[in-house]
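This section describes the prediction task in plain terms. A model, or a person checking by hand, is given the sequence of a single protein chain and must write out its three-dimensional structure as a string of tokens. No templates, partner chains or ligands are provided. The sample shown here is typical of the held-out split.
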Amino acid sequence: MAQLGLRSNPKFKRLVKRLKLPVPYVIGLLECMWHVGYQTGSARLGDADDVELAAEWPGRKGVFFRAIKEEWLDERGGIFSIHDLWENAPEYVKKRMKRREIEAQSRNETSNPHQIEQNTNDAASNDKDLGEETDAARQPQTQHLAPSHPPNPPNPTHPPNPTHPPRVRAPGAHGSGNGMGLGRALTDSQRMLEVQSLLAGFGVGAESQKRLIGRRDITPNRVKAEIDKIAADPKVDDRAAVLVHRLSGRGKS
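The expected answer:
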């Protein structure tokens, strides 16, 4: 969905003049680039090749990037981001991004090794305390009350049952919320490491790796499938760039 007033924007008119393309065509290129930002949840695109991949530019390499570099992109350390992406995004996209920020923050907390260790210790402590409290509750409560009648004399033919020591349950015996959260965190961390290893092995740049591994829909199996397709196509020149483009343009997290 094009921004209101885009066609009359002087910056847009200058871009049309630089590219020497019809207005609808230029709008389509910008829409493709913006859509990548909406879908990945980040205004950051990467290097010049990543920018043209995001816009699905079919022309000569570098032409589109040079045309939009000054007025449509922000640069920081050689990495380019879409200028004012969220300020001009549709309302439904802003709500989606707010939700993804909360989910990403939660994933970062659970994937932190120190946080995982703390969760494990808390879970063990909670389970131990719960086991001791449960066993204590099973002991007869009448032993703390004064008897209302004199106790009966022991019967020599039926000796009393020996007293059993209280049982303390091993940590992890109870299904606690912390334990379940730990399992999910380890699984997600494992996925991210496997995906990063596959991307690095295929020559994908560090910035593109970082952007892709944060998405839950990017699984090792999906990356392997795309790599197999690209490897089997002799017409593909820049295999890493094509892989980034395909992974960025499919699926929702």
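For orientation: The first helix runs from residue 10 to 19.
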